[in-house]
Design brief:
Layout: H1 4-16, H2 46-53, E1 58-62, E2 65-71, E3 76-82, E4 92-99, H3 108-115
Antiparallel strand pairs: 1-2, 2-3, 3-4
């Protein structure tokens, strides 16, 4: 009887083990989907962004992509640019993140308006 209890416990635990799932697919580059909001920066080139908002405060190459960061007194905007799926240049904005200096999210449109050069 003493030998059966540990064996039973081991069998019960092994029945609860999870089976490995399918391999996750490698992350793919975001593809431009077109502006979803009037005044959106999606699909703009780096040159168009700089013309609209001035020189970025930070420029970081991340693999095939480019991150441009713009700052105003009221917010920080990160624009992520990638080449087209066929590898064509120029790179275009595929995603934009905006936040306050304390890290909280903020309105993308309000942030863009605070960054536009007059």
């Amino acid at each position: 009887m003493r030998k059966i209890l540990p064996l039973t416990g081991a069998l019960l635990l092994s029945a609860c083990a999870t089976q490995p799932g399918p391999e996750p697919e490698p992350a793919s580059r975001p593809t431009p989907t077109g502006p979803s909001v009037p005044g959106s920066l999606v699909n703009m080139t780096a040159a168009e962004l700089i013309q609209k908002m001035g020189q970025p405060k930070l420029q970081v190459r991340e693999g095939p992509g480019l991150k441009l960061q713009f700052k105003s007194r009221s917010c920080i905007l990160d624009a992520y640019l990638y080449p087209s799926p066929s590898g064509g240049l120029p790179e275009r904005v595929t995603h934009v993140d905006t936040r306050l200096s304390n890290g909280n999210d903020t309105s993308q449109q309000a942030c863009i308006a605070s960054l536009i050069r007059s």
